[in-house]
């Protein structure tokens, strides 16, 4: 039996309403991230700001952490996803990555929220899986692609172990931040990069 004209009109309208509601929820969560500590940000507050009911949020997300994580991804995502620039200068491109990471992690208005979210990720298996699949692994793929381009261009050693290189590049900043050791500055980022590049390059690349 064919679909009636009324049903055909109703379905797209329902989809549009659904999309608008979802966008409003993510926008509300993004606003509240900057306004409230993580512990005080609840689904009720997000729903009130978005002008929807709590059940509308739970239709798409199983928890507060899940909707907040999606909102944070929306804030940081670009039209092409996570891609590192390739200016032809591997050191400059990686320096931008590390300095940007330091700036994001040490933003005084945002760092306490990030730390609370980090704890939530460790405690929630579903959220941890989402973090791994949608943020951590894509980040590593983007860095791997830039390193591979550096190898092809002769900027980096031909036998570079890319997985180890990514750990050496990103590990020091992530380690110091996660343990609250402090000292995360542009100077530290530059020093970590210089140490990593000593491995990334052989004598022919220097």
Layout of SSEs?
Blueprint: H1 5-35, H2 43-50, H3 54-60, H4 64-76, H5 90-105, H6 111-123, H7 125-152, H8 162-178, H9 186-200
SSE class: mainly alpha
- Low-confidence regions: none
Radius of gyration computed on alpha carbons:
21 Å
Distance between the termini: 72 Å
Give a brief outline of the structure.
It is elongated and about 60 Å long. 19% of the residues are buried. Helices cover 72% and strands 0% of the residues.
Notable features of this structure?
206 residues; mainly alpha; 9 helices
Characterization of the model:
The longest helix has 31 residues, at 5-35. With 206 residues, this protein is mainly alpha-helical. It is built from nine helices and no strands. The radius of gyration is 21 Å and the shape is elongated. The model has no long low-confidence stretch (mean pLDDT 88). Helix 1 (5-35) packs across helix 2 (43-50) and helix 6 (111-123) crosses helix 7 (125-152). The protein is 72% helix and 0% strand. It has helices at 5-35, 43-50, 54-60, 64-76, 90-105, 111-123, 125-152, 162-178, 186-200.
